[in-house]
Amino acid sequence: MPYEIKLVENPDAKEVQILNQGIMDYAKQVKGFGPIRFFGFFVHDESNQVVGGCQCDMLYGCLYIGSLWVSESLRGQRYGTKLMQSAENLAKEQDCNFIAVNTMNWEALEFYKNMGFYVEFVRHGFIGDSIFYFLRKDLNSNTPT
After folding, report:
1. Alpha carbon distance 61, 81 (integer Å)
2. Residue 58 CA to chain centroid, in angstroms?
3. Which residue from 96, 106, 103 is spatially nearest to 118, judged by alpha carbons?
4. 54 belongs to a structural domain
5. CATH code assigned at 59
């Protein structure tokens, strides 16, 4: 019986976790790696609404920042910097070799550079002449670049 492939927008977190678990099981099998850790740091307002945050994955010696967002009303008050510092502190505590983050040319490139990140590589071809930057910050002086 052939299996059907379905497009699912905003998939259920439990189904996404099945994919992640399969990847982690394979990584453990072939490399002996521990599980990928998924976490976030969040800023809540007085009514407990999320007004900023940093979503991260910790995998194989890297802390990857998948999302960083601060509401416009909080921008310029160092919440983005504090979120990034929280992630970096955790990465150091967990002996990560480096931190990785991506951004478009119209987003936060200079912010990340000011946080000590450097452009590792660039991807062109997005609509609106947008450029996607892959940035990295080494935490271990022995980390190969």
Report:
1. 22
2. 9
3. 103
4. yes
5. 3.40.630.30
